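Box 3.1 — From sequence to structure: Serine hydroxymethyltransferase
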Amino acid sequence: MLFKNTYQKSFAAFRISTYIFQPPVAHQNLYYGGNEYIDEIELLAQKRALEAFNLNPEEWGCNVQPYSGSPANFAVYTGIIEPHGRIMGLDLPDGGHLTHGFFTPNKKVSATSLFFESKPYKVNINTGLIDYDKLAEEARLFKPKIIIAGVSCYSRCLDYKRFKEIAEENNAYLFSDMAHVAGLVAAELIPSPFKYSDVVSTTTHKTLRGPRAGVIFFRKGIRKIGKDGQKIMYDLEDKINQAVFPGLQGGPHNHAIAGIATTMKQVKSPEFLQYQKQIIANAKRLCTKLQEYGYKINTDGTDVHMLLVDLRSTGITGAKAEKILESISIACNKNTVPGDKSALNCSGIRLGTPALTTRGLVEKDIDKVVNFIHKGLLLSKEVSNISGPKLVDYKRVLNTDAYIKAKVAALRKEVETFSKQFPIPGFEIY
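Predicted structure (token representation):
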């Protein structure tokens, strides 16, 4: 509560003269007193964030004040391009994120698409993999100012080098949103976006296993050498910092910043590295076992912590699968697969292993989890045979049919009995 209720505005960098990145800026004022220790925590969080990803503070800076990933992304856009500036991000149905510019033919769904001109790039409909050649072709025509390398449901490593080549060809910034894979990046188990990106954002509550918050990393120093031989410098630091405050936010969430500082210290521990390795091992096992049961996995596998199950061949919708699994105490979410037209009427489910791994499950335990998922999806077919195609009727049968309710209860008991072997850290009596 001490940190949660302590209020401040501006940045520690502007309030004390020992800031390691730059001296205080004269036009910034100290809005609130009593921030001596808050300042130290913010600076510590910044320092540890850079160390977590092995970044040189002469080449990179960071802002730890964004409330979460979406405001962090919007701060990047508003900081480095003008309203109606052009951006390109992976389309939401293909595995992108709402904040990467999603819109439908009838509505600009995300504020990103409302205030900026966005154009999605796509995956190959047959392989599920990002079509970099098509992205390059469309970027030449669209001329974006920002190209976003980031995903919310894509199970393969991104080719940051190719993204950078396309961005440079169009004099665009490469902005990488690593929110989902930041822990794997920090553990150096997958390619890092930092080698090629101008700006990188992340949340801290996914694979980093920290508080619900966001961080923006930005390049410093020389951006490129001009045709006349003059050095062209990055000017991202002030632009992004001022976009966060006062542009989009007021007082930061100091309790979350303290959590970021703790998280970034844990990132450098041997235990964290082992955790990340097990996340990937569990995800690969989850994928393989589902395929053995005959389920189709988008991109035919995974390199990371998550995978997308394409249910079109089963006759089960993503919404029905989500509902039946929830009823047996297995959490997942319905998700679009390439070719879907609606996020609500979608054909897949997204599965991930960080939470299971945190609870101590390893590969042999994942086999049991897959068996539960398979049983749940088979039961979903039984429900559909009774209810017909409509989700509202499906839910009604699930909640009222005595035969179905008994089968659900029995399977839920199996799942919950199994899960009790793996206490939730900090809640051993759960």
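Summary of the box: The CA atoms of residues 323 and 395 lie 8 Å apart.
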